Automatic annotation (TrEMBL):
Compositionally biased intervals (Basic and acidic residues): 1-11
GO BP terms: actin cytoskeleton organization; muscle structure development
GO cellular component: adherens junction; filamentous actin; stress fiber; Z disc
Single annotated GO MF: muscle alpha-actinin binding
Domain of life where this protein originates: Eukaryota
Ranges annotated as biased composition (Polar residues): 12-25
The organism of origin for this protein: Rotaria magnacalcarata
Subcellular location(s) of the protein: Cell junction; Cytoplasm
SUPFAM superfamilies for the chain: Glucocorticoid receptor-like (DNA-binding domain) (SSF57716)
Protein name as it appears in the record: LIM zinc-binding domain-containing protein
Region (Disordered): 1-52
Domain LIM zinc-binding: 152-207
The entry's keywords: Cell junction, Cytoplasm, LIM domain, Metal-binding, Repeat, Zinc
Length: 207
């Protein structure tokens, strides 16, 4: 027989020189002990902890601002309202306040019609024909009461807002005061990011 390697040659010799051994001299099997198991060469790796990142979020109010836009108080100066005799039979005037057709004279103001008795301040009942006035959400108010009691305060400068008013972050702002914390540009009525309660424009750096 042609043997291919030294290893096989030694094995062959061992087989040929085999001598039978008495069963009484056979070594007893040694029970397997797991405590003597060789340590694994593969290093133990602890499971990676989840990495949390604080992402800027789009505030709900920002989406509303983008859709609704800044709220505008419609202001009328003294003398801007006029009394219409309503003597045109083809003219149909509907009171903006009560929604009922006006049969007699009516007040024209801000491209709307009002019953004479309804064109008054909702707070003090002053006739608004005699003074300046403000209309918001369908309610009329004399200019004095609006500035004294109803005008909201700006969250940044603390002054009363008498013209345009932006609602965001559950607060009211002057348009010129609602700016990006990073670049100081006016955000206006567009969408914005919020981090730690501060507004950032879409391109603002929130790091």
């Amino acid at each position: 027989i042609d043997i291919a390697s030294d290893h096989h040659t030694e094995q062959s010799k061992s087989v040929n020189n085999y001598q039978p051994v008495s069963s009484h001299s056979m070594p007893k099997p040694i029970p397997y002990d797991e405590s003597h198991q060789q340590p694994s060469s593969i290093p133990h790796v602890s499971p990676a902890k989840p990495i949390t990142t604080e992402n800027a979020s789009i505030n709900k109010n920002s989406q509303e601002a983008a859709v609704i836009g800044p709220r505008i108080f419609k202001k009328g100066i003294k003398g801007s309202a006029s009394l219409n005799p309503n003597d045109n039979i083809n003219q149909v005037a509907i009171c903006y306040s009560c929604g009922i057709r006006i049969r007699g004279p009516f007040i024209s103001a801000m491209d709307r019609c009002y019953c004479v008795e309804h064109f008054t301040c909702s707070r003090c009942s002053t006739n608004l024909m005699e003074c300046g006035f403000v209309e918001e959400n369908g309610k009329l108010c004399c200019e004095f009461d609006f500035e004294q009691y109803l005008a909201p305060f700006c969250a940044k400068c603390g002054h009363k807002i008498l013209k345009e008013c932006i609602h965001a972050l559950e607060k009211t702002w002057h348009p010129e005061c609602f700016v990006c914390t990073a670049c100081q540009r006016e955000i206006g009525n567009g969408s914005f990011h919020v981090k730690e309660g501060h507004p950032y424009c879409i391109n603002g750096n929130i790091d």
